[in-house]
Amino acid sequence: MADITILGAGLAGCEAALWLADRGWQVELWEQKPTAYSPAHKSAGFAELVCSNSLKSDRIESAGGLLKAEMRRLGSHLLPIAAQCSVAAGGALAVDRDEFSALVTQAVENHPNIAVQRRQADDIDPDAGLILVATGPLTQPPLADAIARLTGGHRLSFYDAAAPIVTAESLDMNKVFAASRWGKGDADYLNCPFDKAGYEAFYQALIEAERAPLHDFDQDGELTVYEGCMPVEIMARRGPDTLRFGPLKPVGLTDPATGRRPWANVQLRRENREGTLFNLVGFQTNLKFGEQKRVFRMIPGLENAEFARYGVMHRNTFLDSPRLLLPTLNLREHPNVYFAGQITGFEGYMESAACGLLAARAIHARLRGETPEVWPAGCMVGALVQYITTENKDFQPMGANMGLLPPLEERIRDKRQRYAEVSRRALAALETAICYE
User: Fold this and answer.
1) Residue 115 host element (H or E)
2) Which of 4, 112, 128, 239 is surrounded by the most beta carbons within 10 Å?
3) How far is CA 246 from the centre of its chain?
4) CB burial class (10 A; 0-12, 13-18, 19+) of residue 418?
5) Is residue 86 helix, strand or coil?
6) What global pTM score does this model have?
7) pLDDT value at residue 220
């Protein structure tokens, strides 16, 4: 008989399963694929990356880098796997998503303490032992309905989107140039420079392009959209300079064809290690496929782009965690039921995996009859837990960011030095909370 049942083999579920299994606990891991798929998932493999292949910055003076440093101290299994299949992405950690999924699947399926069940869960019995629900924001009925019944219907929803992917051989390399901002690091991104007239024509086409129909609109026909995955056409409607100061910012770049900074700039990031595929950074979208082809081919260098995958948009569901969850990530009214990953409001790939680690450690303490670790708000994982379990009438998912951490007592003017000191303090705070075996 399993000590713990985990529903969902995404990043959170796999991270939790591997951590618990390494400590001798018998884990039963349920995954609905390939029996059933969500609207966004396509592969039968575990830890499938849907929206992007970037796991964000790996620099310690960044929020993403700090989170990864904390995860390494907490015993992450997925970060070493990500390092094995990383692709060039400047200071970020990006992976070949197919290789990453294959390696995670192999690690889980080959672990002697993990029994994988390829089946769909349709209910949750809070009295049948410990359960960790890590089914993600795309949790589908009937399980989503079972969660609603268990929580009294307290769940929320929003929409997010994925960016399109183009083939490298279809790019016009006479217009596209490789460079990193300010000349720092390796030239891991391809850049598509707009002049003023070209950008204005592209902008006008973008805001007039036809979007794909979606269900579940509110009465005004508007969407609740997560800011971190804002579709580019919705962002553009906020004003013509919104993109130029956002995903299309040209700062720190010089177009070698003109010797000047572009008016706006689209960056392409490697999708796989071979560099045969690139995704359009910041171009999450809900445009119809034909419109994506028409409008995005107005980007310099993409005039003849071949789309390996068009951008898509999907509805996500997450818990009203401040009302439902304890800091140990189990339900207040049903303490045998734990939640982890993006369904809790931990927004992002690495955030989801980190949440799985925290839930695993809480379950480990529970199984051993010990007091669970308490994560201080001065470290990134503690700040995220505090965010999702603190009353908030406007609760939305949150990713790792330095704004979650308390400010330094002494002001440091240089931003990089300031964040490096914040990270040093956060890691010190984390060390005081970890219970080493």
Assistant:
1) strand 114-117
2) 4
3) 19
4) middle
5) strand
6) 0.77
7) 34
CB 143 within 8 A of CB 7: yes
Q: Among residues 325, 317, 316, which one has the least CA distance to residue 385? A: 325
Mean pLDDT in the chain?
Answer: 91
Residue 437: predicted pLDDT: 63
- What is the C-alpha separation between 175 and 284, in angstroms, rounded? 23
Q: What secondary structure does DSSP assign to 260-275, as a single string?
A: B--SEEEEEEESSTTS
Q: Which residue do the tokens 């529970």 mark?
A: 366
Kindly report the length of the chain.
437
How far from 43 is each of 18, 33, 37, CA to CA, in Å? 21, 8, 9
Instruction: Provide the residue type at 267 as one letter.
Output: Q
Q: What three-state secondary structure class fits 276?
A: coil
Query: Is cis: bond before 142, omega within 30 of 0?
Result: yes
* pLDDT given for residue 256 in this prediction: 95
DSSP 31-72: --TTT---SS---SSSS---S-SEEEE--TTSHHHHHHHHHH
User: Tokens 């796989």, residue?
Assistant: 272
Which of these, 318, 373, 327, 368, lies nearest to 70 by C-alpha position?
Answer: 373
Tell me which of 71-75, 184-188, 260-264, 322-326 is least confident: 184-188
